[in-house]
Amino acid sequence: MKKFRPNGLPVLIGSLPMGDHDEAIKLVFEHTPRIPLWVQLPVYEEEGMIAQFLPGLPGLTTEKGRTFIDTAGADFGDQLVKFYEEYMAVTAGATACEDSRFVLKSDTARGFFTLLESIGTLDETPVALKGQITGPVTFGLGVTDQDRRAIFYNEQVRDAAVKLLALKAGWQVRTLSKFGCPVIVFIDEPALAGFGSSAFISISQDEVAACLNEVIGAVQAEGGLAGIHVCANADWSLKLESNTDIVSFDAYSYFDKFILYPDHIKKFLESGGILAWGIVPTSSPDDIKKETAHSLASAWQDQAGAVAKLGIEPLKLLSQSLITPSCGTGSLSLDLATRVLMLTRKVSDTIRSLS
Length: 355
Prior knowledge:
Elements: E1 9-10, H1 21-31, E2 60-63, E3 66-69, H2 76-91, H3 110-118, E4 129-134, H4 136-142, H5 155-176, E5 183-188, H6 205-221, E6 225-230, H7 236-240, E7 246-249, H8 251-258, H9 262-270, E8 274-280, H10 285-290, H11 293-308, H12 314-319, E9 321-325, H13 334-354
Parallel strand pairs: 1-9, 4-5, 5-6, 6-7, 7-8, 8-9
Antiparallel strand pairs: 2-3
């Protein structure tokens, strides 16, 4: 497999406000053909960032329109045992992952299979392919048990959830690697924006790091590159000190907070880490409408200059950078989402032309 060189190329975050997967992948190919990704369409309930990766978790129950993990059920213990038996069989190579619960299914992740079916229509082989998985902290805090308690606080269920996500992430890498180019998997962790607040008072940094690194490790074990994506302000030391290959952040709104970690940033880049700059706004329609490729490229150059002052040579920084929207576009109108994709491509083109 070829070595991945970002070189300021554009890549998307994941979601689009559409109802047709074929049309969605065409839009992706139009704007980011060199690093295409599979698309989540949250217009479908089963493609929500939590729901999409729930299948396979022991105790999964739906009653009266609510989905939860029933740890009080009479057969929960048996389900948990079967889960770990299957996990060990897959990790030991006794069972093919493709025949297990640790894969994405077309009824909940149609975008993944649409990407597989469509890659052959591209004029050139991509530089890389991108997948995504909901992060273990966001997942663990978003899924609850029968008593509406987040499963992250149940060590047994948390461990199962982390292993489910890890193998589903690794399976994406193995499947996409068949096309002969590098594979990136972003671990989407919006919940980490709250780390350090009262909401996390009983969760330690070591617990968070262990969960993240298990998923990261599964991606890397299959030869993929793992990225952590947080689309708000956060404790960036936690992400920069993790085993991740890529840190994806909202550069448009929070670069002033990100740069407060100069030593961590410098060490991360010097070790070969990649920064995915979310320089194209997605949270405010007014910002999306007012910004241009020139204004955003200029803003990126100013930000890159601040990082360069840490002792990072500008060309090295560009070679270890990706240009992205600040977050997914699934909650926007299609017109605004399309503009975000267009701006992402044009900002990348502008930055690369000036190097």
